[in-house]
Amino acid sequence: MNKSRFEAFSDGVFAIAITLLVLAFALPQPHLGTNRELATALFAMWPELIAYALSFGVIGIMWQNHHALFRLVERIDRPTIVWNLLLLAGTAFIPFATRTLGEYPAMHASAFLYGLVLTETATCYNLMLNHLIRVGAFDERVSEATLAATVRAYRVGWAVYAAATLLALVLPVASFAAYVAIAVYYLIPRGVDADI
Amino acid sequence: MNKSRFEAFSDGVFAIAITLLVLAFALPQPHLGTNRELATALFAMWPELIAYALSFGVIGIMWQNHHALFRLVERIDRPTIVWNLLLLAGTAFIPFATRTLGEYPAMHASAFLYGLVLTETATCYNLMLNHLIRVGAFDERVSEATLAATVRAYRVGWAVYAAATLLALVLPVASFAAYVAIAVYYLIPRGVDADI
Amino acid sequence: MNKSRFEAFSDGVFAIAITLLVLAFALPQPHLGTNRELATALFAMWPELIAYALSFGVIGIMWQNHHALFRLVERIDRPTIVWNLLLLAGTAFIPFATRTLGEYPAMHASAFLYGLVLTETATCYNLMLNHLIRVGAFDERVSEATLAATVRAYRVGWAVYAAATLLALVLPVASFAAYVAIAVYYLIPRGVDADI
Amino acid sequence: MNKSRFEAFSDGVFAIAITLLVLAFALPQPHLGTNRELATALFAMWPELIAYALSFGVIGIMWQNHHALFRLVERIDRPTIVWNLLLLAGTAFIPFATRTLGEYPAMHASAFLYGLVLTETATCYNLMLNHLIRVGAFDERVSEATLAATVRAYRVGWAVYAAATLLALVLPVASFAAYVAIAVYYLIPRGVDADI
Fold it and tell me: Which residue on chain B is closest to C64 by alpha carbon?
């Protein structure tokens, strides 16, 4: 499998999923008659707006992770493609989870569903990384230390998402806040080392 | 026709169609009042979820086939473009067939429609392959044995999809299960030989 | 303006518009209870299916034209970008015109709207071509004869679409049939000469 | 971060957002019975059509700006990615703002929302440009004069959009007209200097 076509396909799914997030916003039906009604309806969309911004950050982070990971990879084999498809299936599901979270921001079911999707993608990232290490798919210039650090970072990410997901069963709004906090944490620029 | 622009356009359609699959999921109308109602509504979407996962696998397999085929091809002529458009028209139709199958998982009409679309794409793949062989569009390093094996594999794929489609007229749920089994079979990684 | 990024953006719009055509198909509301009802509802979508296939062909032809034209072009200036945006605005509108034509296949207004959109894109192609010739944007290896033949072909295309559009004011179904006939004519592979 | 993958992802979002604009058009429900009713319904969509054309121009201009800016940039760092995500989040929101403006062309709330989105993207462009200059991310052949001119142009663009947004609180239709005038101004081709 040609790596550039693999990356282009993945980037396409990331870009489309991130742009479909806007479908979480729907105009009220039936047609409103006054400016005050419209302003009220638009203001009432603030949970959708937070969910939109959250998912934009989440997919943006995933896209960066994907890029950072595959920059170091030399060979794409069949199992990698299957893990990647499972990862993209989770990513492409985010617009629906976002719409659900935006419309039901304080319910256990919507916050749990959202967390499940993020945990699914984190699981795929971890298992795909394990596979890539096992088959020696990385560029030989990538050091053991970099791989070990990446494995640790992915495991922490998985644990954090899983914890926030379980939190949704008890305190959905706190879980929603945790998803936002995690996304902000990962988005804040920090120094990063790279071997190549 | 420049091969890279031909592949980029096809990849675009595959990536968009696969991401549009999420439109099979719709939030219940009108707005639900309790967490229990929302949880029940989300649980009731399990046929949609299976149909979503199925079609994600199906389009993912098609994308891989497309890549594997055109990696060996050197020249893209007009008839190839037309066959490819017919193939993409079937692929782009999958989101609707998926939504129908998800909403009506146990009906003959939806399982038959889904199978028809897969059979259409398999037909296009077979006829496009025949054309490519007839006009000698393959890289000269591709052996006769590879081409013959590809033709056989494509014919088997077509026959399997056609059989599952006909099964829909008798046992729709068995047909649905057959689509899933076929997708899983093709997704499981196996050793693959390649000439180039 | 970098030509490859210009082409990639245009190809993106073509690929997305062609894949959004599937949104012309909507499942009947409310949920149907029997297989017979579902089969009847799906059969009743044959005008949508013809409109879908028509528009798939139309956008496919436009994408090929775009490729064939810009393969010969060396420089992309600002006016070319503006003409191209107007062309893409017409292309991106096709999913709505298709849905309208599919739902109202025998009405003057829908057939006229569909023709208007095609005539708009044909107009943009003609004016963009005129501009490209006037500013000498073509590769110097492109002969005068090729340019003259392209101008003629574009004018004929425009006239044919405009005539079919006017026909919609009198005989909408004949106009619909004419759109299909034109698309089939352009899709049938024929020998093509190229300078480079 | 590889610059070409960064640009491809951004171009993908621009292309998808611009093509999703067509979702502002919805067929009237329930199904209309006569050609006159359909023609009337389509004619009544002229505000949607103006909003569609406006947003097509707006996103087209943004895409060009993005290209013109990053053609001069050599290094993409993490803060640039975050600014770019915030910019794309605004861009991907435009289809919803467009639908709102098209359905409520004469209301303060919709014209203000539309302006807010444009002002948000202009703010991101300005802050991203500041960052790129501060960290010296530009190609060394780019002159100080070019950078200073770009900073000025971006500030003027921001001020004009902010002014039109505030105008929406008083005269929504005038604000709508101002958005159109600004887009037409930026789309009209003019001579442009470039260092490289």
Answer: B1
The predicted pLDDT at position C2 comes to 80
Q: Is the pLDDT of residue C7 over 80?
A: yes
Q: How far apart are CA A155 and CA A146, in angstroms?
A: 14
Please name the residue that has the structure tokens 């501060």. Answer: D134
Q: Enter the DSSP assignment of A67.
A: H
D114 contacts D179 by C-beta, under 8 angstroms: yes
Summarised one tens digit per residue, pLDDT across range B44-54 is 999 999 999 99
CA-nearest of B167, B80, B155, B154 to B116 is B167
Give residue for tokens 């659900």: A100
Judging contacts by C-beta atoms under 8 Å, the chain B residues touching residue C190 are 78
CA distance B12 to chain C (A): 6
CA of A196 vs chain D CAs: smallest distance (Å): 11
CB contact under 8 A, D92 and A67: no
Check CB contact under 8 Å for A108 and B35: yes
Tell me, what's the pLDDT at D193?
46
Q: In this model, does residue B20 exceed pLDDT 50?
A: yes
Dihedral sign for Cα D91, D96, D102, D105, please: negative
Chain A residues with CB under 8 Å of B187 CB are 82, 85
Please give the Cα distance from D96 to D166 (Å, whole number).
20
Residue of B nearest to A77 (CA): B189
Rounded to a whole number of angstroms, the distance from the CA of A28 to the nearest CA of chain B is 12
**Residue D13 with chain C: CB contacts under 8 Å:** none
Mean pLDDT of C127-137: 95
B56 → chain A, closest CA residue:
A89
- C-alpha separations of B120 from B84, B86, B112 in Å: 12, 9, 12
How far is Cα C62 from Cα C68, in angstroms, rounded to an integer? 10
Q: Tell whether the model's pLDDT for residue A177 goes beyond 70.
A: yes
Tokens 């502002």 locate to D24
Report the candidate in D56, D88, D16 with the shortest Cα–Cα distance to residue C85: D56
Q: Do A5 and B42 touch (CB under 8 A)?
A: no
User: What are the structure tokens assigned to C191, written together?
Assistant: 């020998």
User: For the complex shown, is ipTM > 0.90?
Assistant: yes
DSSP annotation string for C123-136:
HHHHHHHHHHHHTT
Q: Say what the pTM is.
A: 0.94
pLDDT at B127: 96
Among the partner residues C19, C67, C192, nearest to B92 by beta-carbon distance: C19
- The whole-angstrom separation of Cα B120 and Cα B111 is 14
List, for residues B105-142, the tens digit of each pLDDT value. Answer: 999 999 999 999 999 999 999 999 999 999 999 998 99
Q: Please list every residue in chain D whose beta carbon sits closer than 8 Å to the beta carbon of residue C47.
A: none
DSSP class per residue in A75-131: ---HHHHHHHHHHHHHHHHHHHHHHHHHHSTT-HHHHHHHHHHHHHHHHHHHHHHHH
**Buried-state track B102-138, b at ≥16 Cβ within 10 A, e below 16:** bbbbebbbbbbbbbbbbbbbbbbbbbbbeebbeeebb
Contacts of D28 (CB under 8 A, 6+ apart): D41
Name residue B137's amino acid: A
Among residues B171, B9, B176, B145, the alpha carbon closest in space to that of B72 is found at: B145
* C104 phi and psi angles, rounded to 5 deg: -125, 65
Contacting residues for C4 by C-beta, under 8 A, at least 6 apart: none
**Ordered structural domains, chain C, with CATH:** 3-187 (1.20.1410)
Tokens 């096992």 appear where? A134
